[in-house]
Amino acid sequence: MPEDNESSLIQAASGGDAHAFAELVRLYHTVVWSTVYRTLGNFNDAEDVVQEIFLRVLVSLKRFDPKYPFGPWILRIAGNYCIDQLRRKKTRRHHLWSDLSEGEQRRLLQTMVTKPEAHPHDPEEASSHLEIAQILLDRLKPKHKAAFILRVIEGHSYDTVAKILNVPQSTARVRVSRARNELHQAFIKYRADLNGGSGHE
Predict the structure, then answer these.
(1) What are the Cα distances from residue 186, in Å, to 6, 92, 107, 139, 180?
(2) Residue 101, Cβ neighbours under 10 Å: how many?
(3) Is residue 117 predicted with pLDDT exceeding 60?
C-alpha cells in the first residue's frame, strides 16, 4: 500500500482508532503469522501468539518512529516474542519441519551437508535425515534459530534480519553463520554415528 496511506493508518491507530488498527492487522497478519509459524512450528495456539504480538504492537504504537519502515518494526516485535517463547519452552518439540515445502527442506538440508555425495538418494533415508534435521534445528539456541529461519528459510536479507531482531547486521551474520556451522557439525556427527562411527562422509 502507498506509504502515505500506511502512515495515516499508523497515526490514526496510535490515536485510538480501532478501525485503523484493524486495517494494519489485516495488512500484516500474514507476514506475522508466517514468522510465528516458521519459528515456533505448527501448533494449536499459533493464532493466539499472533494476537498477542499484535497486542504488543498496539501497546507500543505510540513509540513507533515514523522515520523507519513499519514492516520490520512489527517483525522485530514478533521475532522478539518468538525468541522469548523458545527460551521458555526449550524442552517442547516444535513441529516445524513437516510444515516446510520440499524446496525449503532441501535448502536447509544442503546447509547442513556441504558435500553433494552426502545427500541421500533413497527416499526412506532422505526421510530419516529430514527428521534428524528437525531435531537438530530445534536444539539451536533460540536467537541463532530465529536468525537462521529468517535468513535461510524465509529468505530475508541480512539487513532485514538485523532489523527484525534489532541487532547490527554483523551480529545477524554471525548468528546465521553459527547456526549453519552447528547444524552442519551436528549432522556430520549424526552421519558418522549412522555409519558406525567412521567419521567419514
Answers:
(1) 45, 20, 17, 10, 10
(2) 9
(3) no
Listed by start position, the domains of the chain span 3-88, 99-194
Taking the mean position of all CA atoms in its chain, how far away is CA 62? 26
Q: What is the CATH number of domain 99-194?
A: 1.10.10.10
Is the model more confident about 122 or about 5?
Answer: 5
Does residue 81 or residue 41 have the better pLDDT?
Answer: 81
Q: How far apart are CA 19 and CA 26, in angstroms?
A: 10
Place 109 in a pLDDT band, splitting at 50, 70 and 90: low
The residue type at 119: H
DSSP assignment, residue 61?
A: G
Spell out where the chain has E strands. none
Torsion of CA 107, 157, 32, 138, to 10 degrees: 40
Q: Which helix (H) or strand (E) holds 131?
A: helix 123-138
Indicate the pLDDT class of residue 199, thresholds 50, 70 and 90: very low
Q: Higher model confidence: residue 53 or residue 37?
A: 53
CATH of the domain spanning 3-88: 1.10.1740.10
Dihedral (CA of 17, 23, 28, 34) sign: positive
Kindly tell me the burial class for residue 96, based on how many C-beta atoms sit within 10 Å of its own C-beta (0-12, 13-18, 19 or more): buried
Residues with Cβ within 8 Å of 181's Cβ and at least 6 positions away in sequence, in order, are none
Percent of the chain whose pLDDT exceeds 90: 9
